[in-house]
Amino acid sequence: MVNFNGIINKKSELLFNSSNRAFKYGDALFETLKVENSQIYFLEDHYFRLMASMRMLRMEIPMTFTLDFFEEEISNLVKYNNLDSARVRFTVFRKPGGLYEPQTNKIDYLIEATQLISTQKSTYRVDLFKDYFVHSGLLSTIKTTNKITNVLASIFVSENELDNGILLNEKKRIVEAINGNIFLVKGNVIKTPPISEGCIKGICRKKIIEIITSMENYKLQEVEISPFELLKADEVFITNVIIGIQPITVYKKCNFTTLVSKELTIELANLI
């Protein structure tokens, strides 16, 4: 079952037609949330990121879209589907009408909840995806449904029997992984690309930055990262709200350690 504009529907039911603007123009954005033991992880962070993203896209935020409403709509659907733990996708899109220029800025929303499957791999291989690039502009930092670069990168990963791909921007610098932000460790310095490079403003990224900043034994740097730095790194890991921290173990002929990843995983768990 799914929630469309506050009404529970069967997945098989027709919810919208070909005039849907998410389908026609990618005029939509989404949040992916983790629910475990009926607790929504980092609820406020997701809510405020959604509100900020809607404002950026000039969508009209309904007066009913409060934090309590956001939480209740998600929790009710998870319970309705008899799930204790779930992967939730909350999608917001502009109502139908118009061509590129919309007839209205009012919105519809769709919530989906599926069984949470969150597993980490002990061996995790990646490579650079260089066919197409992520633009380093501000729109790349929000989770719109225009993810064709990620789709093509995922096909590349499958064809090459990898676990993930690393995306580059038009300046050929590291942006992020297909499904998460990326961090490089060298000695006691941990680097991650700044938002200005075009990476998603990840919720887990934000939490990891807060953790590293509070630790005396590591120094965080939000800096531009060349792909060549991957070859020199001691450790590389990916973050997103579903998996938390996924260490990368193999890149080309490089094998990375996972000590920092394990340490930060423990610290992240303490925030839940």
What would a concise description of this structure say?
The protein is 25% helix and 31% strand.
Question: Major sheet: order of its strands?
Answer: 2-1-6-5-3-4
Computed structural class:
alpha+beta
Question: What is the CATH architecture term of the largest domain?
Answer: Alpha-Beta Barrel
Distance between the termini: 27 Å
Strand content: 25-35%
- Overall 3D geometry? globular
SSE layout:
Blueprint: E1 2-4, E2 7-9, H1 21-25, E3 28-36, E4 39-40, H2 43-56, H3 67-80, E5 86-94, E6 107-115, E7 125-134, H4 148-159, E8 164-169, E9 174-177, E10 181-186, E11 189-192, H5 203-214, E12 219-222, E13 235-240, E14 244-248, E15 250-251, E16 254-255, H6 259-269
Parallel strand pairs: 7-8, 7-15, 11-12
Antiparallel strand pairs: 1-2, 1-6, 3-4, 3-5, 5-6, 8-9, 10-11, 10-13, 13-14, 15-16
Protein described:
With 272 residues, the chain is an alpha+beta fold. The protein folds into 2 domains: 2-115, D-amino Acid Aminotransferase, Chain A, domain 1, CATH 3.30.470; 125-269, D-amino Acid Aminotransferase, Chain A, domain 2 (Alpha-Beta Barrel). It contains 6 helices and 16 strands. The strands form 3 sheets. The chain has a 6-stranded antiparallel sheet. A 5-stranded mixed sheet has the order 9-8-7-15-16, with helices on one face. The mean pLDDT is 96.
